Amino acid sequence: MAEAHQDRMHAVVEDMVQSLERDHIRVMQGRMFRCSADCCDRSTDSMSVVHNCMERCHTPMAKAQAQVTSELEKFQNRLSRCTMHCNDKAKDLFDSGAKEPAVRALMDRCEGSCVDDHVNLIPSMTRRIKDNLDSIE
Description:
Elements: H1 3-40, H2 47-95, H3 100-119, H4 122-135
Helix pairs in contact: 1-2, 1-3, 1-4, 2-3, 2-4
């Protein structure tokens, strides 16, 4: 993918991840650490009971991380499929005898379209992730 398109996509995704981290993940991390500290304060419990308590505290955060990772992987896979389609179109155009500038122009337009389409998917993906994070106990 052309550097400008790649930079644009990276910036948009980075903004989304920063927003999720700030507004949701940090809150969950705070709960997880406070819960774990409460487990450690239970001086009469055995080591295994405290360990199990801490595992329960960490479960929601692990679910949240898995959820975010899964959504980002699906998004990346969709974007990769789109850019692979661009590569195929460019190769077909080149194989038909087109000159390099025409192939580069096609590739740039096609990748720009992929980025535009996927940037437009970010708000719905963000809503879906937020809803999923909010549903984790």
